[in-house]
Amino acid sequence: MDTWLIILIVVVVLIVLALVLLRARATSGRRTAQRRVEARGRTAQAERHEADADRELEAAQEQRAVADHERKAAEEAARRAQAAREEAERREEVAERERASAREQAERARKVDPDS
Which carries the bigger pLDDT value, residue 116 or residue 63? Predict the structure, then answer.
């Protein structure tokens, strides 16, 4: 075989290898770019999800604060109701004693009254 033919074959093989390497590098570059785009999309989605979670957490904390306020108001109302009930019971007892006392006085008055 002639030397020029061997050189030509070697040059052709080197050119083919160079083309294969260039194509592999281009494919790898496209895959890397695609992964980069996907990663950015996932990052953006994660940031939106985190922002949604932050808003939900804030709303839950506000709801808890309202519930605590309402619970305290209900407890205060229950204390006032209990105090009012106790006062009403005390007044009923006083009224019952006064009624009993009035009946006793009326009974004594009838016993003392000569016209009865």
Answer: 63
